[in-house]
Each structure stands twice: as C-alpha cells, then as structure tokens.
Amino acid sequence: MRIPVDPSDWLILIPEFILLGTAIAILMIDAFAKAASDRSSPWISLAGTAGAIVAAVFLWGNPLSGFGGMIVNDDFGVLVSTAILTGTALAVLISVDYVRREELPAGEYYALILLSTIGMLLMVSSANLIMIFLSLEVLSIALYVLTGFARMRPRSQEAGMKYFLLGSFSAAILVYGVALIYGATGTVDLQSIADELISPGVLGNPVLLAGAGLVLVGLGFKVAAVPFQMWTPDVYEGAPSTVAAFMSIGSKAAAFAALVRVLIFAMGGLRPEWLAAVWVIAALTMTVGNLVAIAQDNIKRMLAYSSIAHAGYILVAVAAANRLGLQSIPFYLIAYAFMNLGAWAVVTAVTRKGEEAVGLSDYSGLFWSHPVLAGSMGLFMFALAGIPPTAGFTAKIYVFMAAVAADMIGLLIIAIVTTIISAYFYLRVTVIMFMERPAEPPVVTVPTPLAVAIAVAAAGTIWLFLFPGVTQSFTDTVARLL
Amino acid sequence: MPPVTWYLYVSAALFCIGLFGMMTRRNAIALLMSIELMLNAANINLVAFSGYLTEHTLVGQVFALFVITIAAAEAAVGLAIVINVYRTVQHINADEINIMKW
Amino acid sequence: MASDYTWVLIFLLVGVGFAVVSLLASWAVRPYDPGGQKRRTYECGEMPKGSAWVQLRPGYYIYMLVFVIFDVEVLFIFPWALALRNMKSAGLGALAIADMVIFVGVLAIGLVYAWKKGVLRWE
C-alpha cells in the first residue's frame, strides 16, 4: 500500500505552525498569567504574524505540494497569503488600544485572530475540496466568535448570530456541492478534477453542474457577492471595528483564492458553463454594492457595501480567467489589504467606547482638528474609489485590462460606470472631513500602534501605485501557472 | 444493493427539508437544526458515492467524518452565541433580533 | 425463495398484532377515570415539585459544549488507529505517532485552558 505522506510535508505548513504555536502560547499565558497576557498578547501575536510572513516568503518560488497533494504552496498561494498576513498584522496593530478600550478579553481575542488566520492560509493553499471546506470552517468558526465578541453589546451579539446562521448555512450548501462534484468526477482533488473534465461524458453531467453551482453559491457568501451579501452590512456594523477590518481582508482573500482554484484551476474546462453565472454575479455585485453604499449614513455600513463592491471587481478578474486576470487578483487583494485596513484603522480611531460615533456626521470637520488623520482617510477613500495616485487605481486598471483581454466589454462598461458612481460616496467622506467647518471639530485620540498601522497602510497604498513592478515579477510567475 | 440514485433522492429530500427550514423557521435553534440536516444530507451523498464509485476509495467516508466533527464544532459555537443572545433579550426569535436593518 | 423475508414479515405482523391486541384489550376492560393523579408528571415514583421551566445553571451549558467538542474528536482516533498498521509497515510509524501526539496535544491544551478558566468546576 502506498502512503502519500512524507515527513518533509510538514515544511509546507511552517507558517501555519508558527501561528498555531503563537496562538497556543497566548492562550496558555492567558490561562496562567492573566495580567501579563493583557499586556503582552498583541505583541506576541504581532511577532508570530511576522514570523509567518517570513516563513511564507521563504516558500516563494519553490512550489511545493504535500500530504498527497492536498496542500500546495505555489506562488499564487504565497502572494495571497502575504495579503492575508499583512491584513492580520495591521488588524493586530489597530486592536492594541481598541481591545483595552472596549474591555475585551485580550488573550482570547488575539488567539482567535491567529486561529482564523491559520484557516485562511490553509484555504489559500488547499488543492483539495476537503481541505477547502475544512479550512473555510476553521476560519469561519473563529470569526463567528470574534463577531459576537463584545458580549455585552446587543449589536455585536446580533451580528454574531446572523453571521453564524448565514455562514454555516453557506458552508452546508458548499459541502453539498462538494459531495455532488465528488460523485460526478470520483475525486475531490482539484488537479484530478481538471483531468477528469477532459472527457465529454463528465462535462455534460448535470450532477457536476449542480455541484459547481452550489460551490459557487457557498464561496459567493464568503466573498460577499450579490445576491449572497445580505449578512455583510449587519455583520460589519455590529462586529467590533477591528474584527470587521480583519475579516474584510482575510476571509475575502481566502475565499477568492479558493474560488480561483476551483473555478479556474480545476474547472477551467467548464468555463463556458460558469461564465454566465459569474458574469451576472459580478455585474450585480458591483452595481448593488456601489449604489446602496450611497444611501448609508453609518461609516461601517458604507465600508461594508464598499467591500461588497470590491468583491465585484475581483469577480470580473475571475470571470476573465486569463493571464492578466490571474495576475490582477493577488495584486488587487494586496492593494485592498492596505487601503481597506487603512480606512478601518481611521474608523477605529474615530469611534468611541461602545462603538459610538460611527455616523458620517462624526467626521465633519475632522481635518481642522486632526489634519494628518483626515488626510490619510482621504487617501484611503481615493484609493477605494480607484483614483490615482493610489494602489486602488492600479488594481482597477489591471482588472479592466483583464476584462479587455477576455473580450468582456459589457462587464467592463459596468465596472467603469460603477467606479464613477462609487467616487460619489467615497469623496463625500472627504468633503465632509475637509469642507465642513463645525464650531467644535471632533477630537479623537490616536494611540501610537494605531498611528503606525495607518502610516504603514498609507505607505503601502502609495508604494504599490509607484512601484507596481514590485509585485509584477511575482504575479508573472503566478500567471505561468495557467 | 439499491442503485445510487435512491441515496441521492433521500439526501436531496433531506437537503431540501433543511433548506425549507432555513427559509421558514424563526427560532435560532430550529435554524441550527436545519443546517445540521443539510450537512447530514451531504454526508449521505459522500458515503453513498464512496461506495458506488468504481475506484473504491475511502475519500467520501473520511470526508463524512470531517463533516461530522465540523458540525459538532459549529453547533457548540452556535449554541454559545445563541445562549449569549438569549441572556440579553430573553428570546431567540431570529425575526425579532433586528436592531440593524439594511 | 424469499424465505428470509417471510420471517421478517411474520415478525412484523406478530409485533404489530401484539401491540394492537393489547391496546384494544386494555381499552375494553379499563375503567374510565381521567384527571387527578394521572395528570402528574411521571418521575419514577418521586413526587414532582415546581415547574420544569426553571433556569438551569449557565455552567451546565458550557460544560455540555466542552463535552460535545471532546466527544467528537474521538472520531479521528479510530481511523488513525486503523491506518497505523499500514503506516508502520511503510516505515512511517514514528510519523503516525507524532501526528497523533500533536493532535491530542492541541486538544489537551484546549482542555487545560477550559480547566484554568473554571469551566470544569461544578459548584
């Protein structure tokens, strides 16, 4: 009997093991020395995340596959993992003072953040439908708890319950789809599925199509694509701001990586079938996300709809399923990690204890009391709207180029029109901050870790615009996977 | 042995019952039970396919074990969340837990 | 031919028949006297007291949740034990043991955490 396991397989999982060790260390310190844990756990988790980034980068350029092909560590995976780990590191930084202010149990908070990150990293490197489902659950279960983490705040409780019910509902749909795909192709290995799809008997199998559709729905929930987005605004509004920031990057990036692996790598042969569905979902997601965002007065809900809209743009690249599309997805995710976490960092700074002051009016005249903070928020809003000189502009250009290369002119036009519409609500925030001049502009405190996070996010947002080539060589190797 | 389609009918029926429950039930615990039904429908599929596929692998059965564990973990976390909500509002009627609206 | 199933059929008929006949017989001979003691909850001879709708200790739920988690993890130990022989013959016995040590170790750490947080205290 051949056993497809080798001790060296464990090397692939070094980033995950570093995070696991860190999470366990934090939990143990929390259990045995509560006071020390409150002070030290953010820094321990930051160190662990940094270690995981280093380990992930070491795996770069050296595609490995292990555990019988269940886990692959290709360049696509490393890039998306970098986006996720960047998001985690920044989210930890903005949490340092937030957790203290909201009196959340620190040890459990950071341990759950790290455990969820492990799920995200595993999902990115899953080459097997079982792994995709398992890692999806690992990341989601930790996020359900984190969403309801402010246990005494009814909005957080409600968000936790809604996220849990809809999240596990979508996971159940996903696993049913996986079961159908397994029945149709006889395998859950993505590479073997791709090999099976060559035979015409498998291609036209309705069981396979149903399975693929259900998997698309399940992952659509996770990336918050319309019409599976209904949980997003409530969850982002109710969850602690730092958790919303964390999951807007991590769970979206992980789910997109899985979507790319399933739709493009495994089911590329089925593209004529799924293209129409992804096309419609992408168009709806961009339109609904951007249009409904205009009507929001709550900045957290606005960012939630913005996050839905951005999922739509990435879906355009998925639908294109060409070299450019595959290059633009990791770039978009990394750029999005910087600009979106920056925006959430400013939101975290402006909110007061108990998640008060989340209305757009609370930003009125922010420039006159905190010019640097308002300036960075303006930069992040520009980036999210896709206005140069920001990474958001470059990322959108890449996606548009991918759409052109795939001859998807209709989708391209929708993408451009919705981008122009989106400028309205992003710039409205800027106008409120800079043009209005109330008698008493809001006074907020910006603790040092939060300031560092904002600075890093701003630097990243501009840096990726000035030197998109930094990731260009990376993304080139990604495209070779096609 | 009965043909594999019989198992598929059972599991499809179970899945649809779960789906129907998700749409019509209001009690959070009933919703949780509907989700469990859907997961178990997938389990039936996995085990049935595992037995009928020409190359006899245990993939489907092992997958079913994983799904069972995940379902337990999900139920534990879900119950904890629901209990927490109950302590505040004294009911778990999902329709009425809506401070936030879209 | 279907002799195996004939036995099943006989068994079913006898079973159903027994239930129907005994229910009918008791319906025919019993006196009719509803109410009183009959409405009481049957508690193995104990007199029921108070309402069943009392608040259970919250610790009870947490205890139960922890139990559910650890109970289900056994699922993975059975297949592992079955695969152990194959792993050993493939010269990977040490790896298999190491895998399970990691698995149980992580679980044990979870248990230690629950214990230190006072979940297991039944006061």
Structural notes for this entry:
The complex is a heterotrimer of chains A (482), B (102) and C (123). Chain A has 482 residues and is mainly alpha-helical. Chain A has 20 helices and 2 strands. Chain A has a two-stranded antiparallel sheet. In chain A, a hairpin with a 4-residue loop joins strand 1 and strand 2. With 102 residues, chain B is mainly alpha-helical. Chain B has one domain: Helix Hairpins. Chain B is built from 3 helices and no strands. Chain B has helices at residues 4-24, 28-52, 59-89. In chain B, helix 1 packs antiparallel against helix 2 (28-52) and helix 2 runs antiparallel to helix 3 (59-89). Chain B is elongated and about 55 Å long. The mean pLDDT of chain B is 86. Chain C has a domain at 58-116. Helices cover 67% and strands 0% of the residues of chain C. Chain C is built from 3 helices and no strands. In chain C, helix 2 runs antiparallel to helix 3. The N and C termini of chain C lie far apart (64 Å). The model of chain C has no long low-confidence stretch (mean pLDDT 82). The A-C interface holds A 1-3, 5, 7, 20, 24, 27-28, 30-32 and C 86-87, 89-90, 92, 95, 106, 109, 112-113, 116-117.
Q: Would you summarize the structure shown here?
A:
The complex is a heterotrimer of chains A (482), B (102) and C (123). Chain A has 482 residues and is mostly helical. In chain A, 76% of the residues lie in helices and 1% in strands.
Key structural traits:
heterotrimer, A: 482 residues, mainly alpha, two-stranded antiparallel ribbon, globular, C: 123 residues, 67% helix
Unreliable residue stretches of chain A:
none
Alpha-carbon distance between the two ends of chain A: 33 Å
Morphology call of chain A: globular
Question: Strand fraction band of chain A?
Answer: under 5%
Overall number of strands of chain C = 0
Which structural category do the helix and sheet elements of chain C fall into? mainly alpha
Spatial gap, N to C terminus of chain C: 64 Å
Report the uncertain regions of chain C: none
Overall mean confidence score, pLDDT of chain A: 89
Q: Any idea what the shape of chain C is?
A: flat
Strand content of chain C: under 5%
The biggest beta sheet of chain C reads: none
Helix run count of chain A = 20
Main sheet attributes: strand count, strand direction, barrel closure of chain A: 2 strands, antiparallel
Provide the succession of SSEs of chain A: HHEEHHHHHHHHHHHHHHHHHH
